[in-house]
From TrEMBL:
The keyword Cell membrane applies. It is found in: Cell membrane. The chain crosses the membrane at residues 21-42, 54-76, 104-125, 131-151. The keyword Transmembrane helix applies. Keywords: Cell membrane, Membrane, Transmembrane, Transmembrane helix. This is RDD family protein. It comes from Iodobacter violaceini.
Length: 174
């Protein structure tokens, strides 16, 4: 794919991120539903019993994260997710070449580290007021990669900076 117009703007990337979030939530919900269905079939227990089984919970989490990684890796190695196609954004290495497994792994790991802890702590903070400060700090961690782009000289997100990738404007599809 030939990129002609340069780096994608911050707002374009943010709107693509929000759209991507909706798509990824659907992928994760589908993967979670499959995992819960398998749990019910194998154990005969209701889905509400899943958190009580440490091994089953760990396998469920591993499965959901693996599916999320597979979705991201498949799309990123191809240069575009559905949201990126919609907003005409292409993901490439800093030198313009397609992403390898190293870049995909680093990018995914940074995104997961910054986003994953936020939601559970807000759930706990609703019931334990002393955890609210931790929830707010984790919310700051959630926004760090995107705020980083405002300070970065090339306006890259933190995960793009660390992975050596960049988001460019893709040419219109004909």
């Amino acid at each position: 794919m030939k990129i002609t117009t340069g780096p994608a703007g911050w707002w374009r990337r943010m709107f693509a991120f929000l759209y991507e979030l909706l798509l990824l939530i659907a992928v994760v919900l589908l993967a979670g539903g499959i995992s819960q269905g398998v749990f019910q079939l194998l154990t005969g227990l209701p889905v509400t019993a899943l958190p009580e089984h440490l091994l089953a919970s760990a396998l469920h989490f591993t499965w959901v994260m693996s599916v999320a990684f597979a979705y991201c890796a498949w799309c990123w190695r191809g240069g575009q997710t559905l949201a990126m196609r919609t907003w005409r954004i292409c993901l490439v290495k800093s030198d313009g070449s397609p992403l390898g497994w190293r870049e995909v792994g680093i990018r995914f790991a940074v995104v997961v580290i910054c986003t994953l802890p936020c939601a559970p702590f807000w759930i706990f903070a609703r019931h334990h007021a002393d955890l609210r400060i931790v929830a707010w700090l984790l919310t700051a961690l959630f926004f760090l990669p995107y705020l980083w782009a405002l300070l970065d000289k090339e306006r890259r997100f933190l995960h793009d900076r660390l992975a050596g990738t960049q988001l460019l404007i893709a040419p219109p599809r004909v």
